[in-house]
Fold each of these.
Amino acid sequence: MATRTAAQQRNEAREAYDAFMKECPTNQLLARISDKWVSLIVSALGEQSPMRYSDLGRKIPGVSQKMLTQTLRSLERDGLVARTVTASVPVRVDYELTALGRNLCCLLTAVKEWAEKHFDEVDEARTRYDETA
Amino acid sequence: MATRTAAQQRNEAREAYDAFMKECPTNQLLARISDKWVSLIVSALGEQSPMRYSDLGRKIPGVSQKMLTQTLRSLERDGLVARTVTASVPVRVDYELTALGRNLCCLLTAVKEWAEKHFDEVDEARTRYDETA
DNA sequence: CCGTATCCCGCACGATACTG
DNA sequence: CAGTATCGTGCGGGATACGG
């Protein structure tokens, strides 16, 4: 049992690799931002702010309550959006971008505008690709 | 068999609805771009181009063969990257951004740089949030 | 070297129902 | 109105093996 199998060695290598990778914070943050709900919510709040919970739900097509709440919570945790509760009947909750959030929003709306601008080219490329297949 | 069942009609209506109303095509494209593998691959190709398949695999941490191939294919289909096969032994395949891809790349690397720059603030916000909990 | 094909697991996500 | 709680499932995506 002194001998180490190839599988074991591969596993150890993989674990070491994983451990190293977990420490690369930049990619993690990038992956968090590169999420479709994140970009949709942030850009929605960029256009109009503050917005109520239900406003966001109506503005963003196809989002479920769960994902809306979940994403908003994570954005709040990351300090990108601020949540304000107005205790009344019925309760009113507003969301708006923080300074940091507005900062990021510029970049994301730039991406969104890129999508609007170049959609035709992409669509064209797709049909061309599919025809050749 | 000439009659169309109510279920069929409902289905067709639903599909038409989904196709058109679900959300403007812009948001779909935005969702496609807001994918972590997409952003990682595009930004990798932005730094250095052209790159071989295995180079990309080595450069991007934690990507599987499957996701690498899959994402590259979709990017090729969307006209964002170009794939060049050099028939030799062994085969050599190079990937590089198209003009459209380079265009998008500027924006994505801006996002990546944002992530690098503001990571500390985000991390700080997180610990603050977790403490208050 | 550059993939494609296959299996399979976990969890992201949606649907639904319930509270303050 | 603004959420939580719970359950079911589809599919993203990893591991493995094989083909050109």
Note: Residues 86 and 92 of chain A are 5 Å apart (CA to CA).
Amino acid sequence: MNLDPFGGRFPNRQRNVDAAALFKEGDQETKVRIAGRILAFRGHGKAAFADVVDESGKLQAYFRSDRLGEKYEIVRCLDIGDIVGVDGPLFKTKTGELTVLAENLTMLSKSLRPLPEKWHGLRDTELRYRRRYVDLITNPETRETFKVRCNVIRAIRRFMEERSFVEVETPMMHPIAGGANARPFVTHHNTLDMQLFLRIAPELYLKRLLVGGLERVYEINRNFRNEGISTRHNPEFTMLEAYEAYGDYNTAMELTESMFVRAAEAARGLKVTWQGVQLDLTPPWPREPYLELFKKHVAVDPADAGKLAARCREAGIDPAGMPTEYMVNELFEKFVEPKLTGPVFVVDYPVAICPLAKQKRDVPSVAERFELFVVGTEMANAFTELNDPIEQRKRFARQLELKAEGMDQLDEDFLLALEHGMPPAGGLGVGIDRLVMMLAGVDSIREVIFFPLLRKVSLDEDGDGKECRPEAGKTI
RNA sequence: GCGCCCUUAGCUCAGACCGGUAGAGCAGCUGAUUCUUAAUCAGCGGGUCGAAGGUUCGAUUCCUUCAGGGCGCACCA
């Protein structure tokens, strides 16, 4: 028989769930037309059963040579992994399983590679990340995790739209890497002969839009940070940043709570278990001032430079050249953050570590800033945005003095924008990957990113990377 | 970057402590089988044991180095 193993258009095909919904008890006449991948095959000589799986689920197909005639030859060369179309009436087998009795079978794509073991699926972590498509085909938990991701992001977009925020896109390639403190990835534009940085944050561009009169803006997109990789860090990760003119960090806090509730409802509800901890996300979440937490858990006077330095050295932190606030923050990260099971808003950070945040009017040493923590993990960061260009210039200059990572010049263009007048505003950043991790109950960021960054391996002609990795001892 | 652990057939895993060149299940191939569903029955093929080097008469097993991966630490205000 002559047939194209890689098929073509298969019009008027029904999703498996939709086809199944058409069945009425006792009826043998309802004809359906489904398509999907064969994930199990049980042959019986002149008949066979196959599980045909599409995105919506599984539907069994039953092939009989007396029904298919010469097309039964296709059944004989079917492999697990092949993608096929099946036409025929629905019926129930004697064990009660809804099944399509095939009157026609169309080969839509041949699979040349075997699928992993049917019972255990693909377990090898490395292969699950390198060949995510196989992971998605064989492991329902993986499909479920990414469904949560899609639902969460969709829910957030709807939520932001309801609140009259507009979604915008700002540059990913920046002449100056700003808006956060992290080492950037460097690239180069040939025609302009210009060094560029992949953005570490969209903050400074979104604020330019506030200057331009856009009052509620947000962006959900990738940031790139040239730092270590861990269960909570991928070099490219997805961040939501939102800015609300005429708001402040209190409005941002309310926005965060409401958004997280909506995201949780779109996933698995407000009660979640993450990293072995049972959490209830029902708001309101407690607000804990930064310095009070510090005093409670570190028990060192945050103004006593000598004692702070001693405590730092004890903890293996080199305090040389650090202002007191930096030492406090090092100790805070090391001793306080892991204790924040949350969800909890840590509020009122020392202004010295918040170069883009406005100070409290009555307590100028403190910035109107919060971070949201859950199980020791920073989930969101927000503040009342600093809109005083003179003060902003001083803050940048101070950072330059301290040689903040990746910062070697003032962003004059941003300061110029501020000088035109930026409305007071609340700004918010949310780590989307971490939010999805929590709501999907997975412990590694690689589980919520389809293709996490891994070291390069070369494949041989057989496609087996393990056979052909870079040779030992060879340096290029 | 540092520490610990892992790498055996396409996949999931035994074997190693005590050195004698490997086993199972699934998948594949051949045959039987027209209501099976981890289908069943009979038979067959499949491995540079991650790579290189060392010790040894002999290494998948012991040692060293390297690669990839996992976890933790560091980095990430």
Note: The two ends of chain A are 52 Å apart (CA to CA).
Amino acid sequence: MRSPAELSQAFRQSGLKVTPQRQLLFRLLHGNTSHPSADVLFALASQAMPGISLRTVYQTLNDLALMGELQSIDFGTGSARFDPNVTEHQHAMCNECGAVHDVFVADEPKMLGLDGFDVHAAQIVYHGVCAGCAS
Amino acid sequence: MRSPAELSQAFRQSGLKVTPQRQLLFRLLHGNTSHPSADVLFALASQAMPGISLRTVYQTLNDLALMGELQSIDFGTGSARFDPNVTEHQHAMCNECGAVHDVFVADEPKMLGLDGFDVHAAQIVYHGVCAGCAS
DNA sequence: ACGCTTATTTGCAAGCCTTGCAGGTTAGCA
DNA sequence: TGCTAACCTGCAAGGCTTGCAAATAAGCGT
Ligand SMILES: [Mn+2]
Ligand SMILES: [Mn+2]
Ligand SMILES: [Zn+2]
Ligand SMILES: [Zn+2]
């Protein structure tokens, strides 16, 4: 995801307006590696801007995802997680605390046993226990 | 997942009853490689047994999953998919038709960039276009 | 600075999938 | 055949996300 300043420019160029709510979310997301849910972002945003609505959080997240600035990831935990890192990488989720960490794989695993399937992307999710929860 | 006959025995031994509804689901699931959702199973079950309730389908699916006879997989498509194949394998989902196919990988991809994470399982989902939809 | 137009924000209702609950029903066993 | 615990069904409700409409405000031209 680009910087708040660059995003503001991009939004205006797309005919979208740059509101205080959106700017706040730009800041909360930029460089954020915690893979927060909409709910968590709403809580954070509410601290800085009491009264902001959950609906607006979802709206802005969807706008950013549509622009390719953000990816929405479903780990099957009930709510979607959002990731401003849209470069190719994979994830590891802790079974204990639910934290999601970025990981990289040496090379994409080779798929066997299925002919004629045109692979566009391979999503890998490691499940286990993170360093913090192990101690 | 074991055969309907074996499952019936296992259910009784666990103090669970073997009802016509459960037997029907045993049959619908045994050897099923289509990764159906509860909804799809409910539709199939309703054909053979009009009046069966969606609640009962969910109940039986949960029972089987709890017994380790079935796995529930969330591909982020809204509803869970159920798989009577509980041996280690991976999946490929078609972006066009939503079909899920079983695949195998040569060897588990090596995780980089995260120290101290104890990996219990690695889930891989290939996204792309299946042979049928390509033509 | 001012007013206009159009996008945005909000609050609430509703949609989708799944589970909780309660009352009538039935499997399993003596 | 009868008892009792487990089950089935229908419906309500819970969690996450989106649709909708009225009030609000950003961006732009003057
Ligand atoms: Mn990430
Ligand atoms: Mn499978
Ligand atoms: Zn942890
Ligand atoms: Zn297909």
Note: Chain B is about 35% helix and 25% strand.
